[in-house]
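Sat 14:20. Reprocessing the chain from the morning session after the first attempt stalled halfway. Input below, unchanged.
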Amino acid sequence: MTDTGSDLTPPPGCPAHQGSVPLAGLEYQQSPAQLYRSLRREHGTVAPVLLDGDVPAWLVLGYTEVSYVTSHDELFARDSRRWNQWPAIPQDWPLLPFVGYQPSVLFTEGEEHRRRAGVITQALEGIDQFELARDCQIIADRLIASFVGSGQAELMSSYAHALPMRAAVQMCGMPHEGTDTQQLVDDLRISLDAAEGDDPVAAYTRVGERIQQLVKEKRDRPGPDVTSRMLLDPAGLTDEEIVQDLISVIAAAQQPTANWIGNTLRLLLTDERFALNVSGGRLSVGEALNEVLWLDTPTQNFIGRWAVRDTQLGGRQIRAGDCLVLGLAAANTDPQIWPEQHVGAENSAHLSFSNGEHRCPYPAPLLADVIARTAVETLLERLPDLVLAVEPEELTWRPSIWMRGLTALPAQFTPVVQ
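Finished this time. Tokens:
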């Protein structure tokens, strides 16, 4: 899974110096915005941090700096085999699914990346957005029907996670229900956002095996789906390349979109600007979705980029092979772009879909918006008196520095007899 190289040694200037901040702990998990503010005060726009196992890296906090890193692939590239820390990384390191080199579009560079991303773009462009919205509404209605008679539901597990999962696997040509599909989704969650006791490396291996089976099925019997379009693309990707790129597509469509839905529902149910006005039309679901991308973006941090050569960033000396974590959530709330300390949702210049050549390929953000918007609007339409079943301060966030999502979103409403 990982090509670590054999002759790499950490340079003397790697960021493991005094003042490095562990990217862990309760403060980070529940109120990361406070930690970002303190990191900015102490370190500026680029902070020395420690990943799991005290592995050193840089956290890029500034909007301008994140934009610069993602726009200059010649300085900060995606091939993780450059990392100067590989000799210190154990085989069971929990972040291996993020950084262990794989022959996927995520780690390609230059012309090869443009070729691979182009195949994904063409395959996604084959999705009719009106049909996707209709399919999502059908999925939403089925999910709502499963709990509408009880008058209560835990919306993260029964709705926010379930809907984009079913939409994503359906887009790729898998049945959206069944034990096989559910196992795939569970393993994707573990590999991207492991809880204590989970084995993310083993989960990622199982994901690869299931997608490999899907590609074989579609090679034999192509259909009107993303997988088949990738297989038939004249670029001629190998089955292994398609497996790796499909994992990236499904993972991006499922977990971040689920948290986007959940975080938006939380905003609508807890902020009176929306709770009192959505039905009246003064503040729209679209505005809530956009505000969440600024303030509670589903992907808080992304690992990462690796310095191609010695350079400087935010007043820091970055050594060749250093790892940079993109602080997307911190950049979106950078006081340099919001000097009044008011983050508005008036524009969509956030970095939630990243930036530059390695940003989410078009039209993926539009498709995610269709899924999330349809999910939220359908739920509010079907259950107009939906309210939280707990006090807002009782809601808790998943213990993750990478994803921003609720552990649970309990709600109640008037039961509907079907």
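The mean pLDDT is 89.
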